[in-house]
Amino acid sequence: MNWTGRRLPRTEDPALLRGEGAFTADLAAGARAVRFLRSPFAAGRILSIAAPDLPPGALLVTGADLEGVGAIRPELFRFNYRAIAQPVLPRERVHFVGQPIAAVVAATPEEAEDIAEAVLLDIEPEEAVVTIEDALRPGAPTLHAEAPGNVVVDGTIRHPDCEAAFARADRIVEFSLRSGRQNATPLEARAGLAAHDRATGRIRLTASCQMPHMLRTGIAALLGMAEADLQVVAPDVGGGFGQKMALFPEYPLLVWLARRHRGSFCWIEDRNENLIASAHSRDQIHHLRAAFAADGTLLGLEADILANTGAFSCYPTTCGVEPLMALAEYPGPYRLPTYSARARALATHTCPAAPYRGVSRPVVTFGLERLMDRAAAALGLDPVALRRRNLVTEFPHVTPTGLTLDQASYVEALDRAVEAADIPAFRARQEAARREGRYLGLGLAVFNERTGYGTPAFAARGMGIVPGYEVVDIAMTPAGEVEVRIGASPHGQGLRTALAQLAADRLGLDPSRIRVIHGDTDRTPYGWGSFASRGAVIAGGATQLAADKLAARLRRAAARLLQAEPDSVTLRDGAAWAGEASIPLTEIARRVHQRSEQLSDLGGFNLAETASYDPGGTFSNACHVAEVEVDAETGHVRILRFLVVEDAGRLLNPLIADGQVHGGVAQGIANALLEEVLYAPDGNPLTGSLADYLPPSAAEIPHIEIIHMETESPETLTGAKGLGEGGAIGAPAAIANAISDALSPFGVDIAELPATPARIRALIRNAR
Amino acid sequence: MKCPPFDYHAPRSQAEALALLARHGEEGKILAGGQSLVPTMAFRLARPARLIDINRIAGLDYCRAEGGRLRIGPLARHARFERPVAPGPTGRLLARAAEHIAHAPIRTRGTFCGSLAHADPASEWCCIALALGADLRVLREGGERLVPAAGWFQSVFTTALAPDELLAEASLPLLGPDWRCGFAEFNRRAGDFALAMAVTALRLDAAGHVAEARIALGGVAGTPILAEAAAASLLGASPTPDSLRAAAAIAAEGFEPTEDAQVPADYRRDLVRAMTRRALEGSLAA
Q: What are the boundaries of the signal sequence (chain A) (predicted)?
C-alpha cells in the first residue's frame, strides 16, 4: 500500500473547518491583557513617558523597567554586516511608527487600550529616513551609529571576465525595476500568551510563531533566564509566510511580565498593529545590465540590488536575508557565464523587514523574466526561443555564485507550459481583441527555487545562528500507535498529514495510526521550524530515516517472535510478515513494552528512535503563464487565465501541493497588482487597515490550472523538492510580462510592482 | 482596535428614540446596521458616549411604492435592494448598484438610510440619492422637516442632520419607462469603496431626444456631486457615441478631485471619464 503520493485529505482540516481549532487567542481566557503603546513618530527622541492614574491591577512598563534585559542583535559574519541592536522597549529613541515603546497591562483589552491612550508621551520628532533614496542621500540622518550611511549589509561578487563579456556583446539590455513593500498578512495576526507556573517557576509562552525552539533560545538569552525554564508552544497558527519567524520585542516582554508578576499575560495583535508594526518585506530596487550575443545567448549579467530593510535587523536571519538571497540567486535557471553584483541592505525609519514567502526571488524573477522579454524584443527574437537557448539543460550545473543545480526540468516545463497555453491561438485572440480596442497580453515566467537547504547553505551566509537540520523522534506506543515528534513547526502546510503518509509506508501502517507532534519545545526535539520551503524535504527526510530505524527494530523483534531471519521480515498492513506467518505490530509493541523478558536482549525496553537530516538543498522549478486583459481607460488588469507547470520532484501529497501553489500564486497576484505598504514622506504609514492595504479576495483570484511534473531529486532522501514559495515567486513576473505584452502597442514596460491601475494609466498617458 | 466605553440604549419606539436624541443628541449616535459606525469606533475615530440602537423598533424596515415615490424606512437593509424593489428604472438602478455595496454579510446588516446619514463620499446610495433627487424626512422630538438630497450632503461624513435628529425616511422618485438609468463604478477589489462612480438618468422624449438628464459622481470629492454641465450637454438631441463621450469628458474636467497617495487627481479624472461614459452607454444599451 503506497500512501505517499496520494491526494489524502488533510487530517488538520476537519477541526479547522468546524471552528474547533485552538489558536493562541482561544487559549487566553483568564490572562491579563497587554496593550503595546506604539510610537506615533518615525524618528524622535523620547523625553518622557508619564503614566496616567492607573486603576487597581493595571501596569505600565517602559524601557526603564527592563533593567538587565538585552537587546535583539542578530549576527552575520560576512558581507560587511553591521550588527545593529533593537531594544525590547526603547529608552532613548524611537525608530519607526508602530515601534513598541511601553506596555500597558489591564484586566481586559478594552481597558488596556483606554489606558494606553491616556499615557502622556513626550517625544521630540526628528527627521525621518523613509525610502531607499532617502537612506542613500549624502548627509541623510543615520539610524544606527554602527551602520554609517545607513548601509547594514554590503555584499559584492565580482567576476573578472564580466567586463570582457560586455565588451564583446552584440546587445546590452539595461533597466531598473522596483518592487513595492508588502506585508505577509497572515489570516491570524501575531499573538502571545505567557503563563507562570507557580509549582515549578517555569514560563509557558504560547505564541503564533513559526520557530518555537528558536524563539525559546532567543528569549532566554535576552532575559538571562535558563532556557529549560521556558516552554514555547505554537498551537494552531493561522499562517506565517515568514512574518512569524522573527524574534519580536513583544514576546520577550510577555515572558518578562509573567516572570516578574507571576501571572498570565496575553497580547493579541490587532490588524492595524500587524499592518504597521509586525514585519514588512520586498521594497527593493534592482538595476540590471545584461550582455547578449546576436543569437540571444546571455553572455553576462551585472546587478545592483538595494533593499529597504527598515529600522532593525530581524533575528535570527538578519536583514541580510533579502539582499543576499538576490545576490546569490540572480542567475536563476539560466546559463550565465559571468556575473557581477552588489547587494545592500539599507536601514530606514520604517517597520523592519523579515522574510516573506519567496524572499527576494519574486523580485529577482521579475527582473530576470522582464530581462528575457526585453532582450527578445531588442534582438527581434522569440521570447520562448530566447529562454530555451539560455536555460540550463545539463545537471548538475554550478552557477557563477557556486550553487549546484540538481536534476530539473527547466526546458521541459517551459515546453509543457507553452503547449498548454497554446500561444498561436492566443495571438489570434489578441489580434482580434485589439481591433475592438481591447488589450490582451500573455506573459511567461520561468524560474527555479532553491529549497530544502540545510546547514551548509545557511553557514555559507555567515549567520551567527546557523539553522538547517531537522531532528525527528519516533516511538511506537505499547498499543501500537506511532508518535512522530518533529522540531519543525507547521502552520498550515499539512505536515501532520504528509509526514504520516511517509511514515506509514515505511512502517506498513495506516496513516490514521500515526500522530505527528509539533510546536512544543517540551515535547519535540530541538529543530528549526517551517520556512524556506523545507518541511517536506528536511522534516520529511528525517521522518523517513527515523521510521526506517523504527521499522528495523520492529523487524528484529518480529524475527524473534516469528522465528525467522530479520532480513526476511517485511512490514505491511499493520503486521510483520515472514513468508505466510505474521504478527500484528500491536502485538509486537505490547510484547516489547510489557513482556520485555522475551525481547529485551534485542536492545531496550521501548520502540523509540531518533534521526536527523541535513541535506545540501535542491532546486524545484516551474513555469507560470498569465493571460490578462488590461482596461486601457482605467488601468485595471483582469487575469483571464493562470497556468502553473510545477516540478517539485516527488509529490508526497498532490492535494497539499496544489494548495501550496494556489496560495502562493494568490500572494504573487497580490504582489503584482494589489498589495503595497505606503508611507508618507514623514514616515507615517498610510496603509493601516485592510481598506488601504489590499490583499486579494476570492473575486480577484482566477481559477489556477496546475500541471505537475515529477523530476525526482537525487539530492533528497524522499525525492521531494520544496514548493512552498514557488507560487509567489513566479506570478509577479508572469503578470508583469503579460501586462507589458498587452500594452505593447503603447510601448509600455512594467518596471514597478504592484502594477496598480493608477500606475498603468500613468504609463499609458505618458506613452501617448 | 477595541471600542472606547459607551452607554447603550435600545428604545422600543421611534418616540423613545427621539426623546433619547433630544436628551443626548450631542453625545449620542444612532446605531442601525453599524457597518460603518462600529469599525470607526474600533479605530477610535468615532467615540460617541451613547449608542441609541433602533433595531428593536418595529416597523422601520419598510420599502414601499407610494404616491409615485419609493419610501424607504430607516431599517431597510442593503440586501433588500439586490432584486428590484419596484418595477421600472428606479428599482432596476438600485439593484444594479446594490451588488457593489461591500460584501453579502455587510449588505444583510447595513441600511439605506444609515448610508445617507453616514455620508461616505463613495456611498452608492448617496450618489443615487443625489442623482434622482431623493427627499429625506427628518424627525426630532416635536418636529419634522423634509430635506432634499441637494441640501443634504455638506462635506465628508457631514450632512444637514442635526445631532438631535433621526433620518426617518428616504424617498426616491419612481421614474417612468421613458427614463434610462445607468450605473458604473471602479474599485480595485470587489466590494471595495469605489475610486469613482457615475449614476446617470436620461429621459427620452417620443423623438428619442434627451428631455431631462441627471449625472451624479461619487467617490471623487468630499460629497457626491452633480455633473450639471455634462448632463446639460446631452439635452435636446439624440444621444450618440460621440455625444456621450463628449459629456463624459465634460464631467471629467468639471470638478475638483480628492487626491491621495494611491489616487492622483488626473487618474481620478480618467476614471470619471470612463465611468460616466460607461454608465451612459449602459443605460442606452438596455
A: none
